[in-house]
Amino acid sequence: MRTYDVAIIGGGVIGASIAFELAAENLRAIVLDRQEPGREASWAAAGMLSPAPDSPRDLPLAPFALKSLQLYPQFAAAIEEASSKSTGYARDGALEVFFSAEADRERDARLRELRQLGIAAEAISADAAREMTGATGPAVRSALFLPDEGSVEPRLLIDALLTAARSRSVEIRGGCEVSSLTRDGDRCTGVVAANEKIAAEHVILAAGCFSSQAVNEPSLSAQAPTRPVRGQMLALRPKGGMGLQRVVRSEHAYLVPRKDGRIVAGSTLEEAGFEKQITAAGIAKILDATLDMCPELAGAQLIETWAGLRPGTPDDLPILGSTGLRGLWIATGHYRNGILLSAATAKLFRELISGGNVSFGVRQFSPARFADRQVRAAQTPV
Ligand SMILES: Cc1cc2nc3c(=O)[nH]c(=O)nc-3n(C[C@H](O)[C@H](O)[C@H](O)COP(=O)(O)OP(=O)(O)OC[C@H]3O[C@@H](n4cnc5c(N)ncnc54)[C@H](O)[C@@H]3O)c2cc1C
Q1: Under a CB-based contact definition with an 8 Å cutoff, are residues 159 and 146 in contact?
Q2: pTM confidence score
Q3: What span, in angstroms and rounded, lies between the C-alpha atoms of 349 and 358?
Q4: What is the residue range of 194's domain?
Q5: CB within 6 Å of ligand 1 — which residues?
Q6: What does pLDDT average to in each consecutive run of 10 residues of the chain (382 residues)?
Q7: Which residues neighbour 218 within 8 Å (Cβ) at sequence distance 6 or greater?
Q8: How far is the CA of 12 from the centre of ligand 1 (A)?
Q9: Is residue 87 part of a domain?
């Protein structure tokens, strides 16, 4: 039987980032993925690096998201150096645009919210927004500039990450489905993957939206109650050299420029089970909102559509930390922010697994919160 310090279930951006970081501690790590690694949510993402909350439910995530944004330049540079590949990382800032008759009031309220969270933002005029993006149209009435935000190209990032992890001697196995855990009393001792027992001191469940059902272990499903939340996406190639200089988003959609001139637009938030179908309504919604922001894109060529499954959780927050079974850890539920949060998640797990000081306040993301809720619900008289 092969023996490792750490076995990671899932080779998306979260599993691969953790493996890359742990390998820097000279830990012998293996990443197991049931298909080609990196082909699920991590492949589908837009790649925005934005700690700005999308809804009040995101507020508890902001400090961790902000830390991850701060770690990103160093994180991306380490991956690029170890892999000799680009991640597409750019720190160009982002714009939020507002359309309504109350646009200035909405913008000012958002500005106050962001500043209270420690997120840098400045109010700018619609004209300035047009100048800074090269693309926003006349319907935009006011805007915010978030100078510290950036973006990566997720398909480049995951490819570079897997190469970088291998360069640090991480073993990465695709087509290798984990079906169960092995245990000795109250200790997890490894996994069974493709009918082979793999022994590991630590096992980390990082199977994205599949985490709740990845292995046959009811206690684990209770602590990692993930579900798929579908997001449809599309890519445009603008005509005649029209470009977009940085990320632009409104309440209804976002546009992310790629270095080769394509513009990626998203997205939908759909409860559609594990079905990665593209729908006419989904694409129409994204295109409508895109053209509201940038009417000049009306003549752009629609070159690709795709969909991915975000790892959602009951409270929209990630699930990070130890479980009731010694040696078993969970790193999942990154929902709409896994690309951004990969840097901080990897550093957190390096600290947790190597037994060093933990520099993040992550108690509110503990897997125990769901197990505790289940116990409370069972104890509530009906
Ligand atoms: C449309 C869309 C847009 C997004 N945009 C952004 C964005 O702009 N910025 C941002 O920060 N985030 C964004 N996200 C969110 C981000 O993509 C996810 O949070 C992140 O990719 C989750 O990574 P993961 O590694 O947890 O999951 P995944 O990438 O889904 O990887 C999980 C892996 O586990 C494997 N697996 C499952 N079960 C098993 C098993 N039993 N055994 C072995 N392997 C298994 C799967 O094959 C898969 O490769 C977006 C997501 C979508 C869908």
Answers
A1: no
A2: 0.97
A3: 9
A4: 2-77+154-226+314-379
A5: 9-15, 32-35, 37, 39-42, 44-48, 177-178, 206-208, 210, 214, 231, 233, 266-267, 308, 310-311, 332, 334-340
A6: 93 98 97 98 98 96 98 98 98 96 96 98 95 88 97 98 98 98 96 96 98 89 96 95 89 96 97 98 98 94 98 98 96 98 98 92 95 60 48
A7: none
A8: 6
A9: no
